[in-house]
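Reviewer 2 asked us to include a model.

Predict the structure of this chain.
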Amino acid sequence: MDIDALVYSLSAAPAAALTFSAIWKLRNGEKFAAALVAAAPIVGRYAHAAVAPTALLEIGSAAALLAQPVAGRLGAAPAVFAFIVFVVVRRRTDSTGGCGCWRTVAADDPETERRVLVGRNFLLLVMAAVALALPAAPASSGVVFGVASGALIGFVLMEAPGIVALATIQRHAEVTR
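Predicted model (structure tokens):
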């Protein structure tokens, strides 16, 4: 394993997160539409129509992030833009409707959940930006390692709000004993 494989995993993580998010949207269109309306009320009744195109854009950006070197740079730009939008929207909106990208977690403190969502999206933004600087994909064994480790990192980051919510619930339970 070389440094290129480790760096490649940093672009594979947001690709995995985008893929997980797209699959979730396709399976939970109603929840995505509700979160979209909560974040941008102007969308209104057209929110359901955004499910498939949004999922396709996420999958396309994810595929381009993984296809180095030229397509990765092309794919990184929309992914970086998407994560910038996700960070800005989450900073300005209430997260009680969920993030619209992964399962909703019942947190004791919505402000903490919002901060975790912003932090997660910021980390994914940084990782997607790394893809802009990648010189080339590593050798095939490095690609396999990068995709596998990137998928694991992406999954853990998508689960971060749930992990924090469980830790917060556990902390509150210990305090009330």
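The mean pLDDT is 80. DSSP finds six helices and no strands in the chain. We have added this to the supplementary material.
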